[in-house]
Each structure stands twice: as C-alpha cells, then as structure tokens.
Fold each of these.
Amino acid sequence: MDLLIDSFVSAILLVVSLDAEMIAIVGVSIKVSLTSTLFASIIGIPLGFAIAFGDAPGKRWMITILNTLLALPTVVIGLFVYTFISRRGVFGPFDLLYTQRAIIIGQLILIIPVVTAFTISAISRIDERYRKTAMTLGADRIQTAWVVFREARFGIGAAVIAAFGRVISEVGISMMLGGNIRGFTRTMTTAMALEYDKGSFTLAIALGLVLLSFSFGMNMLFHFFQGRSRL
Amino acid sequence: MTVYHLSGIRKIYGSRTVLDIPAMKIEKNRIYALLGPNGAGKTTLLNILGFLETPSAGKIDFREKPVRFSASALQALRRDVVMVDQHPILFTTTVFKNLEFGLKIRKIVPKQRKRIIEESLELVGMRDFITAPAHTLSGGETQRVALARALALKPEVFLCDEPTSSTDIENQAIIINLLRQINATRHITIIFTTHDRTQAAGIAHKTLVLNHGKLVAANYENIFSVLVTHNGNGHVRCRLNHDVSLSATLPATYSGNGRTRIFIDPHQIISESGVRNPESEIKPQKSSNKLQGKVHQIIRENKDIRMVVDSGVWLTMIMSESVYRQNRPSVGDTVDCYIPPEAIHTIR
C-alpha cells in the first residue's frame, strides 16, 4: 500500500513539475495520435458519407466488414504492417520501421474503420426530410449532401473524438512498429509498459494520470457532440 | 393556362400500384384541394408534382412543355415548385439561415436576401423570430416558418401536404388565410392535401378526390349556387332550386340580392327524426330548413360517419358514430335533415 501511495504522490509531483522526459513522451503521443486522426478523418469521413448517402451495391456488406474491422486487435495490425515495412518487406527500402510514420500507418488502419463506421451511423440517423427539404428548395445533389453533412456534424465530430481516444490509448501498434525509442517513438502507453517492466512506477503512474486526463477530456467532448447530435 | 397536364401517370412500388391517373389538369393561379383517405396516394402525387419523385409510367407537361425525368432537368424545375411537408423540418440553425438557404442557391445578393427574408417572415407573422434558433419553435411556428421559407423563393406552384394537420386552431386560421392571400396577391398556384372537406370547400377553387390511387368524381359537396332574397328580419332565403329554399343568417356585411354560392357545413346538419319508411313520399318542405331525402351512401371516415342524402339536392352530413347509432339509417331509408341557419355560409 505504501508503494502505491508513495508512487502516486511522486507521480503527481512529476506532473505538476512538468518533468521534461514526461513532456517529451506526451508530445510524441499527441503528435502521432493527432496526425493519424487527421488522416483517418480525411479518408474515413468522405468514405462513410459516400457509403451512407449513396446507393452503392453491396452497401450492407461494406458496413458489415467495417464493423468487423472495429474489433481488429492492435497486435494483429502491428504484425500485419510489420510484414510490409520490415527490411525484407515490400516497403522495406523506405526505412519506415521504428519511426513515427510507421506508428501512424498502423494507427490509420486501426481507426479508419472507426471514423467510417461512426460517420455512417451519424449520417444514417439524419432525418430523411432534410434531404427532401433541401431538394424541394432547389438544391442540387452536392448542396443536398452538404445539408445532410451539416445536420450530422455533431455525430461526425463524435466519430473523430472516438478515433483520437482509440489511438492515444493503444499500445500494440506503437510498441511493435515504433520500437519504444526514447525521445523518438516512445509514447505514453509504451513508456508505461517499459516503466512497469523496470519496476519503476512513478513515471508510469504520472503518464497514466495524464492519459486518464486525456481520456476524460475526450469523453467529455464525445458526450458533448453526442448530445448535440440528438437535438 | 395549364400548369400541369398529367397523362397516364402511374406509380408502382414493387407489385403495388399506388397511383394511377389517366388524365389530370392543373390550371394556373388556382387553389386545388386534394382529398382522400390515408394511403390514397395524395403525398405520392404531391411528390410527383413537386418533381421529387418520378412516375413509373406516363407523361407530365409542366407549363405546356413535356418534362424530362433526368436529375438535372428535375432539379431545374424544382426551382419553380416548392413543397412544404405535413411535418416540416427546419435546418438546425437560425430561422434567418433557414430562409436564406433557397435564396443563396438562387444566387440572390445578400442585401436582397435580407429584405425578402424579412418580408416573408412578416407575411406569416414570424418577423420577431428572425434570429431564433429554429429547433426552439413550436409545431405551429415551425409550420409557418416552413411556409415563409417556401414563399421567399416566389415559386410558381406551391404544394402543401396537410398544411394544418399538426397545428392548433389559431395557427390553422393563420395558414388558411395565408394560402388565400398568396394565391390572390402573388398569383401562386396552390395544391394542398387535406382530410378536412370543409376546409377544402372553404378555400379551394377545385377539389380533387383520390381513392386507392385513382381520381374519383369530385363534386362540390354541400356547395350550391343559390338565389338570395332578403326577408327583412335579418335572415335571407337561399333558393337552391324550385323545390328547395333555406333560411340563413348570412353575415351583416352581406348585402347582395341575387346569385351567390353557399356552403352547408356537413357537421351541423341534423338527421332529425330518424328513419322513416323507405316507401314514404319525399317532400322537400318549403317553409322550414327541414328536407326529406333518401340515404344514398354511408361511409365511415375515421371516427365519424359520412352520409349522403338525396333530398332534391345532394346533401352530405357528418355525424359521430354514437349519433348515427341512435337511428341507424340504412341506404335507401328516408330521413329528415334539419339545416340550422347558422350552418349556411357564403363562399367568396
């Protein structure tokens, strides 16, 4: 019990003192997660919108596949990407392994289905009358699509928040593709795993507190967007 | 001028034909009421007239030109025809931006847009709500803003799907007056669906009745062309034909002798003394507002019973089921119909 209390107090002091190593780790995590979320949004939102708004054949199958991909374990993605970017892999010559870009690629695979599936869900919840109203007011197909997109904006915002929350807390991809290199690919979750292995809990708990704060913030934002989407 | 000319229009969903109209014409600057029970095809017809749905078969001429059912052609036509839903939905933004949407699409300059929006909201009595978030409005207010949003676009044809069904009595009166006003002042052709025959008769120049997707013969129920004479005691006599004349209390503002049109509210006609012997002689009584007639048709309409009686003139009365059960007249029976003077209204 003393160990927990001592570690917890030291961790709080570490957070309050804005320890340089901790800040560097948090910085890497945020940079990598924001980048992967940005690219996943650029790909996933239009894809989800196209699937939900259009009448493409095989729409149900696409949704089923996306829902399946939501449950993809991070270590499977790590292993999958590794086979492509390792020295003997197809993309070996690009020297991607153990870089932040490798983590971003893996995280993209993880969260594109999240953003896409949540966007489909957000668009599908929008009342059909919005589309009809836009059309009768003279809107063309693109203007009608924009109306539907605007009405679904809070739901789509929630999709992006959910995706960010997923990548900032994942460990498998960051560990397998980033290699946990200090000051370069060491993220909050990989650093916590390492500190645990070393039996040094102070930094691990401090990072855990930061991660929990992030998760809390993400959830607050998520609920804000979810709430607004139901207005 | 004919705005719409429909020929051989059919709409089929799967194996079910929901609309089958061999021919129909809609004249410019007129108000049309589209009556019919639920599932009769009223909304489908309105969607087709609004170029929101394409028919499965048939031909439509709009402004005497054939309509091509391509997406771009229909989108161009939708600029002249605006539809307001039975339960309209407003975009989740301000009332101003809701009205601005269609004007922006039509590339109206901002200064002009603002003026049109203010005028349109003024017309529906919602000027004070211009900056209000649209989702905070009540049902009646939403309906009025939706009407303003459509009217701001100055359409040639205005389609309304049951415009008063989800509003209270106050808002119903506002909406009905508004429809009359825009038809009279802006010369907009209006087609609206309703279940309310009285409302249809009150404002429409012509009533169309749909049943099972087909247009059925639509005569003006309880609307008569009459010869009016003042009898000196504040009442007037309305002579419908040689045998039938009725005493009425027409408004004080009504001063004319001569021909006019009256509407007899079917809810106010009383089937007074019940069923008589079918073989008894039918005698329209000249001195009172009591007419004898034979029951021609009895139909259940939602919770009411609608009875058509041949009493020298075709008379429709609507009564509750409990009132009907008191005498239970059958088709062919002879009944007395009492028409209270206050049930008679003049029609403009």
Note: The first helix of chain A runs from residue 2 to 16.
Amino acid sequence: MSDPIDPLTQAKEWQDRGLKVALATVVETWGSSPRPAGSQLVVNEDAGFEGSVSGGCIEGAVVTEALDIMDSGVPKLMEFGVSDAMAWEVGLACGGTVRVFVEKLEA
Amino acid sequence: MKRSVLEQLQAARDAVLPTVLITDLANGAQALIVKGEVVAGDLVPDTALKAAADDCLRLDKSRTVDGYFLQIFNPPLRLIVVGAVHIAQALVPMATLAGYAVTVIDPRGAWASEARFPGVNVIQDWPEEVMIAQKPDRRTAIVALTHDPKLDDPALAVALKSDAFYIGALGSKKTAVARAERLKQGGSDPEAIAAIDGPIGLNIGAVSPAEIAVSILAKMTLALRGPKGG
C-alpha cells in the first residue's frame, strides 16, 4: 500500500499543474484539540484539499477562507473554539481551541 | 509561503535533515533553517528565535513563540520488522498509515515474498547484517516477530546497542525470560535487555494477528509520545 499523501508534496504538485494553492497550518492549540500544531491542510482553487487541521469539524470553514486567500495573497490567522460563536456553527465539538494560519503558496 | 521556500523545505526533508520553518504570523514572512543555518526565506531570525527553534527540534514539537510559528520537520519515523510473518502483514499497513517508513527483514524466501507484502520494502537477508546497515536511530522502532532465536536474537543484539525508541519481541513470558538470558550470555547490556517489550504490545487481550498488530502499534505510540495528562 502507498503512504498517505503528504500535504506539502500535494501543494507543490498542484502548483506545478498551474492551480492556485493555499496552505493552512495549526499553529496553536489549547485543550483537547484533535490535531497538534504543525498539522496541515492544503487547498487548491477547485476547493480540492488534502490533509487536516482538526478531526473534520473546521475544515469546511478553513477551505472557504483559503479560497479567498489564494486570490488576495494576504495571510490570515483564524481562531476556532468554544468561546467563539463561530464554533457552534462549524462545530468544534471537542471543546478545544485551535489557531490556524492560512497563507497562499506564492510563485 | 514562497515557492523557493517550499522547494528547499522538500529537499531538506528528502535528505532527512533536521529542519525548522519559522513563520511571522503577523505578515507571513518566513525563514527556513536547515541544520542550524538559514537557507531560504525573507525573515531574519535573531539568536533567541534560533535557540527556540533548536528547542522545538529537540522536543519534537512545533509551537508558537512570541507571534512566530516554529514548525519542525524531524527525520521520519521508521519501523523495522524482523519476520515476514502473519502479524507483520497486519502491522505493516497500520504502521504505514501512522506515518512510519517500514522495512521488513526475513531471510526466508517463502515468507519474504512480494505476493505476501505487495509494495513493501522487504529485505530477504540475515537480520544482523541488515540491522547494522539500517542504522536504527532515536526515531526508529524495532519489532522482532519470527519466534525463532536464530533470527530474532542477532537482530535484537544490534537493536539493543542503538538509540531505537522502542524494541519489542514476540513470545510468552517464559520465552522472554529465556531470550533475556541468551542475550545476556551474548554480551548485551542487562539494562537494555530489561527494556525490551515482551510479551509484546499493550495488553488489550489481542488474539488475531490484526489485533496483536494494534496492540504493538499502541505500545510503540506510548513509547514515542508518553501518556497524556497526569
């Protein structure tokens, strides 16, 4: 069997094919967040993605933001947690807090 | 992230070099540090930030310090399995999913066949020589599964001299005691021998080969990470 795809390898491959790409990285966690700092999700302009920044609960919101950032080129630090009203909508059910840095993969 | 930073980062990872990527979370500026030297990026880290990056590598943990994210890329985890047995057939795909680069060693052709381990790095040779060539490090786990002292013992003797973070050997309590005695006679360090995990794996009452593989992977994870909390 083959290894799970490395998100950065995937990002490079997408860019090679001429797709716009953004990287999302967990940079800080508190409480019981499911993925440790350094975990990465990569997104292409067709909303295709590889990797993860949570157990699946905030990926949707991160992908949406990533699509904006790959156009604007302006990086953003996103925060998700129980204290955040957004958390109910996107459902970080584990009760932790997580900060995700989203940036464009530039040429 | 700039394309040039990504390319240098992937090259450093391919070369299995200790690497840290520093990102300024306020503006996205980055510095890539490979073996202590800045090799790419538009950020110039000061001495304190470089020292923090070193700490992260040592602790095998990425973290944010004063608005900078220090992301580490340590050499990959490796698993060396001695014995191309039924349990290995279950353990290899599980460990691969958990992020290990897996090597299986067995000199017996009927066991170490491509048909039994499709796409797996299987080395059909005597474990002792292969183990020496593999140079197990502190990111390596070693599991001896043949149940045959001729194959397991020489592999374990090499493993015991290495920095491997986990060494496990299949067999009952009685087998483990007899093996420890043989390894001691062979000149292995008694303290290191005592640290061999055997009977192998976390005691979850595993019965089938796949369940035993789960128990082994669980114990490897515990040895690597330590228990949570407390």
Note: The interface with chain B takes residues 1-4, 8-9, 11-12, 15, 23, 25, 27-28, 36-38, 75, 77, 99, 101, 103-107 of chain A (CB under 8 Å).
Amino acid sequence: MTNKIILAGFGGQGILFAGKLLAYAAMLEGKYLSWLPSYGPEMRGGTANCHVIISDVPIGSPIITSPDALIAMNAPSLDKFENELQPNGTEILDSSLIPRSSGRTDLSSVRVAATEIAEKMGKKGLANMVMLGAFLKKTGLFSIDSFKEAIKKLLSEKKQQLAEANINAVRAGFDAV
Amino acid sequence: MPEIIYKKPHSLSDKPFHYCPGCSHGLVHRLVTEVIDELGIADNTIAVAPVGCAVTADEYFRVDTVQAAHGRAPAVATGIKRALPDRVVFTYQGDGDLAAIGTAETVHSAARGENITIIFINNTIYGMTGRWRQPLCRVRSRRPRPTDATRTRRAIRCIFAKCSRRSTARLISRAQPLTACRI
Amino acid sequence: MSEAVLMKGNEAIGEAAIRSGCRHFFGYPITPQTELSAYMAKKMPKIGGTFLQAESEIAAINMVYGAAAAGVRAMTSSSSPGISLKSEGISYIAAADLPCVIVNIMRAGPGLGGIQPAQSDYFQATRGGGHGDYHLLVLAPNSVQEMACLTAEAFNLSEEYRIPAMILGDGTLGQMMEPVDFSLVPEPVFAEKPWAANAMRGRGAQNVVKTLYLSPEELEATIIEREKKYDIVRDSLQRYEAKFIDDADIILCSYGITSRIVETAVRELRNEGIKAGIIRPISLWPFPEKIFKRVRPKAYLSVEMSTGQMIEDVKLACECKAPVYFTGRTGGIIPEPSEIIDKVREIHREVC
C-alpha cells in the first residue's frame, strides 16, 4: 500500500509542517516514507508544496507525478495539481479560500472551511491542522492518537504548549467532514 | 676569550638565499627569525608561505610551514589557527599576493579579528614573474588626478584602518620600493 | 529503525560529520546546500567546534586546506558554481595529500544555471575540476541514510588514504527528508598524522606541507608515488549496488537521485516482462569497473540528469562490448519513470 500525497498552498500556511507531520506519523508507525519540499520560485508563486510518500515497501522516487491525494489550501494550488491526481484519488480543499472544486467526476472531493474553522478557534495559522484532520477522516491513514504523538514529537520543546491547540484543530477538521 | 655578540638566528637555516641581490626578503627573514628566537616560540609556530619569491620560505624558516595559493595565505592561516588556537601562526606575503589577488582574504581575516600575524613585504612589484607592477606600485605621473595605483592604495588603507579598530591582526608594511616604476 | 530520526539530507551530512569527529566547518551560503551550513552554524558552537562563514568559497576551501594541514578533520560544502571556485584549492589539497571532505550538492549549470537539482558536475568531480594529475574519492549517496553513512566513511577513508573525498549529492537529496538511523553510521577511525604541520613541539624536525616542486624529476616522482596510492584506491574502494543483473538484457546505470527513479522504472519493466537490471555506482571515482566485467547484457542505458557524463565511464568499463545508450534530462528537470520506461522499451525493440 503506497500513499502519494501532495500538500500545497501559499508560503506561510504551514504546508511544509503539515507534510512533516504526516511523515513523522508514518515513521512512528514503522512505515517507509519520504518528504520532499518545493524550493525556489514556487515558494513565491503561491504554490509552495511538498510531496509526501508513505508506503509499506521501500520508496523509489520521492517525486510524485500522479498523486492519489491532494491537500490544497489556495486556488493556484488547485489549478496546478488538479489534473495530476490519479483517477479514484482524493482532493481535500480549503473551501474558505478555494471557491471551486476540480469538477472531476473520477475523484472524491472533500471541501472543508479550514481557515474559517481555525479563525473561530482563535488561530488562523492552524488551518493546516484542520485540513489534516479532514484528510485523516477521509483516508483513515492514521488514528488521531498516533497523530497526537507525532505532533508532540515534532514540536520543539519551546512550542510544546501549542500541542493541544494543534490537536484540537486536527479534531475539528476530523469532525467537520 | 672573544665574546659572541651577534649570531645568525637559530630559526634561520644555513641555506644561502636565492633572492636577488639587494632584495629585502633576506633582511626581513633574518628579522623574523630573530624575533622568533627572542620570543622562544620556534617550537610553537606555524608559518604560511604563499606564492611569491618567498614561497620556498620553508627552506629558510626552521618552523613548520604550509605553502599557500596566491593570495590565500590569511585564509590558510585562519584554518590553521582555528584548528590549533594555542600555536603562533603567521603569514609572509608580498604585495601582489596581499593587495591584488588576496585583498578579500586580507581584509576579512582582519575584519573577523583572526589572531594571526601577517608580515607584508611591499616592494611594489611581482618579483617572481619579472617585476610586473602591481596595485600598490607608486607611479610617477604628471596628471593631476589620482592614478589607479593611488586610488587602490587609498582604498586599501581605508579598509585596513576600519578593520584594525576591531581586529588584532598586525600588518607590518615594508614600503621600500627598490625598483622605481616609470611610465 | 530503532533510533530513526527524520532529517533533511543536508542535515544528515552535518550530523554524520559531527559524529565523525569533524569540528571545523568552513562554508559559504549557496542554494541548495545552505541547510548544511546552517546546521553546522547551530551545532558547532555547542560542541566547541568552529563554524566559519568565509568571505568566499575560495577562502573556505583554503581554510580547509590550512586546518587539514594542521592535522584536524575539516569540511566544506557548496553547490556547483561554488565548487568551480574551489577547484584550485582542491587541487592544492590533493597535491599535498591532505584528507578532508568536500560536499557538492549539485544544481543545474553551466554558469549561474538554476537552483534545481542536476548531475552535471560528474566530469568536474571525477576528471578533476582543478588542474594537474590528481583524483578525489567521489561518493554518491542516493538516500538520506546514505548521505549520513557515506559522509562518515568519507572522513575515515580520506584519512586512511590521504586523499580528499567528495560527497556528490544534489538538490533533491539535500532537501528531502527520510528517516535516518545513526546507529548504522560507521564509527570514526582516526589515523595518525606524523606529517601534520602542527608546530614542532620537540619533534626536532620541521614538517612542511607543500605542493611546489621546481625540479621536474622531483615532481614526477611525487606524482608517480601518488599514482601508486591511486592504484590501491582504484582496486579496493570500488562501490556499487546491483539489482536484477543476472539475467538482465538491458542494464541501466545511474547514481544519486536518478537511481531512485530508475529503480521505480525497472520494477515496472520487470512486471511487463522486460529483463532490465540496475548497476548503481556508489563510488564515482574509482568507478566500479569490476562489476561491468561480470555482466553480459545486450545493451546498457546510462540515465543521468545531464547531457551524458557518466556514460563515458560506462563505455570504458564495459569496453563497448554492448551498445551504450543515454537518456536524461538537464537544466534542473528530474526525469520521470515513464520517460525511462519508454526509452528501455525502444532499446528492447532494437536489441532483443
């Protein structure tokens, strides 16, 4: 079983961190994984992204050409990746910022108002966690518990007090879809 | 019994100098090794000899020596001093080396405050390659505006002045043009 | 994976270097290796080491030369244009038979090029970017784990054989994160350095680290001595990984990140019934010629992110006993498995 996930949004939305979290959760469960960020001009153009591969077998190329899941947090990211998704793939879109879906009938499409939900929780910056919660619900890839563990391990010591807020945001996303 | 009142420094080898007659290298070699002997640091010193007539200074200085590429002696000396902070590290550089190709290394080792000593032999020429002029060369000119050489000297002096306020690098300039350059 | 941590390739190199006893890093920022310098900047002061941001890549390599001459483990890193700048310094280090580790996280060239990954410095690394008769030990990792393990090996081998070592990575390997298990990274093995210019301190005799020999006879003699050492290295340090070669009709040769894509392609080709195999050189100098003498494919395919540089070594190694094809992308573009699969199918139609 191999999951190829692309997370994309504009620089500052915590796309890379969200990807790292998925990677960390995979590592804690003893799976093979790779995480590859975009760097350079893409960071400026509003399509900062990372490629996360989680697998039961050793991973070949860390570069994803046809993802089976896309977590998109802004419209340019949907524009860029919507046609690369494999048939029967999943798109998870932040409906607060992306007015449309891909319109493809061969995908399952999940819309979650992640930025709005995060704002209501008092921290707009947790929208990426809300998206992950929705992703977990849709794919069942990890349990919330193993995710909690990953959040605690990934956050530095100085930022441990943010762990609970992050976990709550994940839960909010999980419950919203 | 005659009293010995002067002798060749122990840290200076017996090898006859290959330098041109009248060249200041011989004199400065003697001065440097005399100081090394007086301070008793021969056993704790590492010399850096970059490209120039004195690249073979290891044959004259009886201390551990590292040859360096043209202009890079302060960088090499930085590497040595950072590796072995309790040794005395010095470079022995000509003017083409220090003030042309090596300007950046000279300025930045001073700006960082590296604890090294730079012995700077400014005879205003590239001796080894046939006495070509170099940026600090004094050039006689009837034109009232500053020449390139003067501008270069001013720029370098200005940078050294700024750096030396913060640094412990010592520059000993032997500005003795033995060959006057004429247009 | 008992002690696995998630790290970027660039950081894994830094951590492995520190665990190998390297306490002197002289660097300069350049994309895409800046994380390695940043990692060293953060860690070195905590362990009493030196991190120095030099005024240029040229100064940095000369600082490595000085520190190595003084007898310590020293390291620098850069990316393609910066390595060009270091060429003279690298030639000096090789000529003085000094150990050190130089990391090149390749990006697209020539000139300023781009910041995306490429493999167009193969010639520079293996044929000598600098002047003169010399070689570097060149190791090419293809995973974050290997970035760590090969760095540790590079320090040990470089000291043992008194030859500068280069880790040839690329932007993808440098930036990507994978789990690294540091318990698998080799322990440091420190060599005695009676030749080091570290001040006489009662030794009695002067140590000189030099590369100038004005007498041609003397210079030739030192070069020949060095060649004998290189012969030993050529014989004993060839490293490679080979998969599916026993019955392979077409053997694909690639290194670094490209080899990961090639492996994905080859697994799919095998599912299709095409007998493709892989030889992945891990040491680029010395090139692993020996394995090429043991295989008998109908064709070779060199896959590189360049216009074809390693292909020359493949041809030499197999003595062109079978046709050697090339496919690849350059300019910072990473080939996709489908491009490689299409090329192999085309070759298969021609030779099988």
Note: Chain C has a mean pLDDT of 96.
